[in-house]
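Listing S7. Sequence submitted for prediction.
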Amino acid sequence: MGMFDTITLDPAIRCPECGALETSHQTKEFECLMSYYRIGSVVPSSCHSGIIRDQFWCRACQDADRQAVRPLYLVIWHSVLAAVELDAGEAERKLRETDRLDLIGWLADSQREALRWQGKFRRLMSGLNAWQRHLREKANPEPDCEKSRFWSRSLSLPDEILNAPDPLAEIIKLHSKEPKEDEP
């Protein structure tokens, strides 16, 4: 079978045969590097703007021994995945009606997502640095000084993490949670 890329379908596509919802689509029309794409993603394709015909596989139809393969159309607009449609006419309409305001919205979504991941990375690195500091201080305790006590208290990890059988796993678990809305 080889490698493929995955497109997250939002909204999901309803199979016209059985009515099952498909929330993702695997394709070999891009780089086949097991990358993930969604509407608004820049896609590596020889098609700058146009429609790529692909094949839609319905898992429910395949499980029920019905015809599982149908045409699927990937709408590419200025190297951006603009739509994924089962109907060629609807794909053509989406290609015609996609405009720069859509592009601005997709760019804003991408920037928000990048900021969310940067925040998750910074929080994880902060926890890992605190764990490294804890191990260093445990191995080489410095003479007690005001500056050292301040940093230890303000940048230390909770006792539940420090006393856990696998503190590193606890740090990763702590930082894999999504931040609250008011957190960066």
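Caption to Listing S7: primary sequence and predicted structure tokens for the chain studied. The longest strand covers residues 5-14. The chain has two domains: 5-98, 103-176.
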